[in-house]
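Handoff note, outgoing to incoming analyst
You'll be picking up this chain. Sequence as last confirmed:
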Amino acid sequence: MTQVPHPILVNGQWRPGSHATAFSPINPSTGAPLSESFPVSDWSDCDAILTAAASAFSELRNRTPDEIALFLETYASLIEADKEALVEIAHQETGLPKAPRLGDVELPRTVGQLRQAAAAARQQSWSMPTIDTKANIRSCFQAIGPVGVFGPNNFPFAFNSIAGGDFAAAIAAGNPVIAKANSSHPATTYRFALLADKAAKQTNMPSGLVQLIYRTSHPDGERLVADPRLSAIGYTGARNAGLQLKAAADRVGKPFYAELSSVNPVVFLPGAFSERLDKLIDEYVSSGLMGTGQFCTNPGMLLMVDSEDTSKFISAVTSKYQSSPCGTLLSRSVETSLLKSVAILKDAGAELLTGGTKVDEGRCSVANTVLRIHGKQFLSDPHVFQTEAFGNAVLIVVCKNLDELVSVIEHLEGNLTGSIYSDSTGADDADYNRVAGVLTHRVGRILNDKMPTGVAVSPAMNHGGPFPATGHPGFTAVGIPASLVRFAKLTCFDAVRESRLPVVLQNANALKAWRLVDGNWSNGSL
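Most recent structure output, in case you need it:
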C-alpha cells in the first residue's frame, strides 16, 4: 500500500502538496527507509506560501510586541508538553541518542531560545532605538518582511527551520517564516509545525505566520529565494547548495545569512604539550568524536609544531580513534560526503593514519578517521586541504616551526571558531599573541585552552565568522538579541509626529527599552 504523503502547511491550512513526487527519510541506525512520506513541492506551492506570507506580514505589522512574545512563549510550552513524541521521532530520523542529547540538552535549549526571543521581542532594546532630540530624528530596526529558513541536518531541534534559532529570531523581529524542512528529519519538522500552527491559532496570529514545505527542486528553490515577496533567508547546510541559493539571492540584492563550512582550527603550542600532554589527548578525542563529529564547531583541523611530544600526541589520538566506538552518521548523504572528503584529502597527499572506510553495511557510519600532512604540503595547496570532512574525521597539520604554523593560519579561509592551547603559566605568551593576532582575524569566535564543540546560547555568543563559515562576518546565528538584527531593516523617522512613531521611539518609552538618546544610553522617558 502506497503511503499518502504528509500535507504541507499553507496559510494556516494543512493541504496536500501539489507535486506528484514524494520522498521518505531513512533510519540512519539501520539504513532502512521510514514508513512516512513527504511531498516535493512544485512552484504552485511556493507561490501560495509566498502570497500568504506577504499577507501575514501586512497583518503582523499591526501586532504589538507582547502579542508576538506570547506566540513564542505559547509555542515553547507546547513543545515542552510534547517532548516525549518529539524525542522519539527525532531519534528515529537522526540516530541521535534520546538522552542526554535530544531530551536533556537540545530540546531545553530550543525552548530556551524561544523564550529568550520572546523577552527580546517584548522589551525591544534589540531594535537599537536611537534618538536625536535636537534634530528631531529617530531610528530603530524594524521587521524586514517574510523570512525563509532552511534548517540543517545535525540539530533537529535547536536549528530546526520551524523551531530553531533562525526561526525564533525572525519571528521575534516581527516577520512571518516560511520553513523549508531538512530532508533528513521531515517528520520531526512536521511535528513542530503542528505545534507552531496550534500556538499561532491559540494566540490569534495571522494565518500565514508560520508555513512549511519539505523539499523543492533546485530551480524552484532558487526561484523561491529570489522572489520579491521573500525579504531575507536564513540557511544552514551544505556549502555548494548554499552558494547556489546565495547566488540567486545576491542577484536580486537580498540578505542571505548562511552558515556554510568550517574546519575550526585548533592550535596546540609546544608549551601546552610539555605541560599537560595526556590531558590534551583526552580532551581533544572527547571533543572530536562527540556526536560523531557532526557539529558545525567540530575541531576538524589540528595545527602543531613538530616535536617528540607532537609525535606522542598523534600516536595516542590515532590509537584512541581506532579503539573508540564508531558513531552513527545522520544520513546516507553525510556518509557519502565524508568518504568523498577523505578521498580528496588522500588524493592530495594526506597520510591516512586510521579509518577512512565504511563500517557497517546497513548503518550510516564511517570508521573514526585521522589524516596527517606537513605544513609545507598545506601551503602548496591550501584550498584542497581545507576540504571540510564533516563527521568523525580530523586532519592534523604538523609544521616545522612556529613561523610555518603562522603561515598556515594566514592561508586559512574564514571559520566559525579558532582555538589556541597554551602553557597555563603564561610561559608562551609571546607565541600565543603572535598566533592569536592572525587567527582572530579568520574566525568569529576565538577560544583559549578550550575545545570549540558546542555553542552556548548567550547574548555574548558569536556563531558566525568570515566567509565561507558564513555569508557575512558581521552577524551571528546564535545569541539573542544580536541574532534578531539579521532579519530587520533600519528605519529612520525624520520630523515624524510623535503619535505616528513606533512605540519604542515615543517619548514615554512604555516598553522601558534601552535607547541611545543624544549620545547617552537610557531606559527612561523623555
